[in-house]
C-alpha cells in the first residue's frame, strides 16, 4: 500500500506551525517516537483513499490455495524458525481453530 499526504492540505501547515509555537515537535507520527505534530498520511491509490480489501484481499481472493473466513478473529500467529509465519489460531462463531500454511 502506498502511504502519502493527500493532494489537498487545507490548513494543515498552519496547524503544524501553531503546534510548533506551543512547543510540540514536528515529527513523523509513523515513527518510533510519536509525540508531536505532523501531516496526516493516507493510503492513496489513483487519487482516492485505498483500503486493505482493495489492496490485498480483492486481488488474491480467487486463488485456489487461499481460504478466507468471514467473522473470524485471529488470536495468535504461529511462527517457526524465528520469524516465518506458518499458521494462525483464531476464533470463529465461538469455536477456536488452528490452521497451518501448506
UniProtKB/TrEMBL annotation:
Gene Ontology MF: a single term: oxidoreductase activity, acting on CH-OH group of donors
Keyword Flavoprotein appears in the UniProt entry: yes
One family name in Pfam for this protein: GMC_oxred_N
Cofactors demanded by this protein: FAD
Glucose-methanol-choline oxidoreductase N-terminal domain ranges (all copies): 8-99
Keywords for this protein: FAD, Flavoprotein
InterPro entries: GMC_OxRdtase, GMC_OxRdtase_N
Name of this protein: Glucose-methanol-choline oxidoreductase N-terminal domain-containing protein
Organism: Allacma fusca
Lineage of source species: Eukaryota, Metazoa, Ecdysozoa, Arthropoda, Hexapoda
